[in-house]
UniProtKB/TrEMBL annotation:
Protein name as it appears in the record: DEAD/DEAH box helicase family protein
GO molecular function: helicase activity
Key words, A-Z: ATP-binding, Helicase, Hydrolase, Nucleotide-binding
Signal peptide: none
All residue ranges annotated as the Helicase/UvrB N-terminal domain in the record: 96-345
Provenance organism: Segatella sinensis
SUPFAM superfamilies per UniProt: P-loop containing nucleoside triphosphate hydrolases
One Pfam family per UniProt: ResIII
Residues covered by the Helicase C-terminal domain: 423-543
Amino acid sequence: MAINSSNISLELAHRLTDVVNAAWKSGEMLEKVTPTTASLLNYWFGEGFCNERARNFHEGQRQAVLNIIYLHEVMGENCVMDAYQGIIPELMDRADLAQLAKPKYQMPKYAVKMATGTGKTWVMHALIIWQMLNARHEDVESGRFTQKFLIVAPGLIVYDRLLDAFCGRKKRDEEYRDPQTNDYYMNQEVFIPERYRDEVFSFIQNNVVTKEDGIGRKTTGEGLIALTNWHLFENQMEEKEQDEDVDDSSTVTPAEIISDLLPIRPGKSAGNDLGMLDRRALGGTELEYLAGLKDLMVINDEAHHIHEIKRNGETEEVEWQRGLNAISATKGTRFIQVDFSATPFDTKGTGEKQVKLFFPHIIVDFDLPMAMKQGLVKLLLLDRRQELTDLENLDYNAERDEQGKVVGLSEGQRMMLRAGLTKLNKLEEEFLKNDASKNPKMLIVCQDTTVSPFVEEFLKSEGLEDEDIVTIDSNKQGEVKDEEWQEIKKKLFDIDRYKSPKVVISVLMLREGFDVNNICVLVPLRSSQAPILLEQLVGRGLRLMWRESDYIDIKREDRLRVLKNHQPPRTYIDTLSIVEHPAFIKFYDDLQDQGLVAVDEGDVGTGGATGDILTVGLREDYGKYDFQWPVILHDSIDEFEDAEIDLDDLEPFTMYPLPLLRKFLAKEGETFVSQESLTKTTFGKYKVTANLFNASGYNEYLQKLLRVVTLRFENCRRQGFPTIQINGAQTVQVMDWYIREKLFSAPFNPFQGNDWKILLAKDGIVTKHFVEQFAVAIYKMQNRLTTINAEVSHTDFSSLRAIKMRESYSMEVQKCIYPRLGYPSHGGGLEKAFIEFLDRDAEVERFLKINENGHSFAIIFYVRKDGLMATYHPDFIVATGDKVYLIETKGDDKVDDVNVRQKQTATVEWIKKINALEPGDRMNRTWEYVLVGESVFYSLSGSGATITDICNMCKVSYSVATGNLFDM
């Protein structure tokens, strides 16, 4: 790509990404941001936390957050020019310096370019949490952080989506929004570290103000999250500019007299608007209130609407941008702007000479090709059917009379609509066979609102019913009145979940913000070739429909076919079919040149729209082959009162001897901040002054240590599994004893001299050891609990009534609750061979391959090597006449992995507790845990060994799990 002033910001984004990734990998970035930011970044993107979550930020979201924080905190950007000078100084001669010198770029300003459907709202939430928590916990007077946010949407659809995200969703036909369905609550395990959750929830609950509430009128807490659309600025800017143009002479005009007497402007579009009258009566507009704030972060959703236009040769700002200019004028660098858009560019020229002018402040470029390669959006499929091959002669304009009035559809338009219906009907028939919740939809984008009725009439003539169609008309700007939108929402509410409507007809209203997952067919009857409009139309169908793990393999294979081999996919799972339109030939060609679109000539999906995915239910006599998973419960907490940490479980710190620690750490004249390295919890900031680290400070230090340790066990409680109730006071006493007597293998007094500094060592080396020791000790304490008077609940594996699998990667079995079992398409050879072995071995009475998602109750908790709590699902459960085996099959290269050992230890301890139960609570069998390596299995099974032989050879005992042959 040749770098010039029109695209240099993309080069800036790519270079910045390289710099940031290097700083993140080296650890330099965490050292240069605030402790609060470091804590958040480690929670969001640290390997230990990410490995324990089912969902995480994807690469594009992660990069956007990191790049903005790097520019803002590490580089300290005060204007857009700072980013250019700091990242690409050698390319400054190619930048548009006159543009960068404009006032609207003299502030921290970041544009996030992310493909539609890739979750830019998650980035928005992360940035708000980052700014808010830093403003509350760090130096707010620095001007780098704020608790006040203005979030602006382009129209009603995106605005309504923001209300869902911040205020929660509405149930059908209800006005109340449930705050526990907002994005922050629903995704708390991804967004918010445990210790900040109450604070963040409270902030969101108390500080959100909608445009209906009245920005500046509703009382909030100490912060602000104002939600509005760009129409906030529409009339206010016009009035503001008129007020500024008033002649300051002493002559009073009739217009001024009328203005003083009547607070309305006859002839103005909103002159008699009651909201405007209220604002004036209450002392000013929203714009004036926002301009009066000391600091503010503005987040523009779909920010491609903020651009410049030319009128009579003069460049003018649109009202949205002019409003932002007015708000920012009073704040300097305390005004931060973040723009989100999949299409952050304007265009110049027409036809082949058309050029995209990208926004100059783009800091990340996560485009459609990257999103497709990572499987984050649907694949694009150009529907080129037999009847559409003669595109040049296809009349795609509506038929009109002599006065230009639309009187009907052309034959070409009818053919395009029939092609779309053909595809929709095929998808509906085959999707619903596999999954009754998959309801494919078709979106038709018309030339104008006069065409829509004829499209609707034609669809009904083709067999669709009234309830199958919803038509959404709008004005030339793609807008509708608010009261009309309320009616539209009722029709579109949860459209993904219901069979009808099947078809949505629109002009411009749904070009952005219509965020549903089930749009599978797009029929573009419009002839506009504007790149932004085309990309927005395609974007309406990009969101994934098939998100379940059952479809991962088949979607991966389809992506390889399209993106690597330039072949059509074999299935229609997560594809968006665009019925070819002759006016869009160049657009289609550009997509094909980038390898982003495959051509469907009617022969794609030969393996069925969903490929060879099967839904396999329980066999008729499944009861003979069922298993029960036991969970030990306790009626009373009294059973835990005598449980104590075994002091012998606590090992001393041996990395450095105490005299050496005193020499390097217990020095005069410095400030120390101690952080626990895994969660970046700050334990205190203490300057070296007399008697500062007193008993109160030491007690706070112990309490924070206790909090970090107990957080390790919160995951167990959230998933409904019994855990010990930790006696906080007793544990703090043990912590104090450990520090004073055993931590350094010698008596240690934290109040003697500067020895306390050793506990607050900057790199957290002592704290990390401390946390790991207590996490393991508490875990061991729980596993020493007696099971006397235990109450046991059982869950049947048959409670999962059906499982999905690929026919080509599954086999028929006899001794299982399901008549077929699947195995991985990649590297699944060992599991396939093991299933075949189990099904034919006469000693095996029943067996099952545990489905990690469906059999989520079959779980064992363990403490990872780094002290984090994690979960584990064994591969197989197998029963013989007197044994139940939990069996893990592993490739030889993974048998000795450190965390595999941790899983083994936890499972052996769990098995021990199960075997202590009454026989009826454990299927009247003894339970054992077995780890079968690949080479051992093939060697033994090839020699005629039975399951008992293999399990006796590969049984995992406590000594094997821990690697201590003398510990039985």
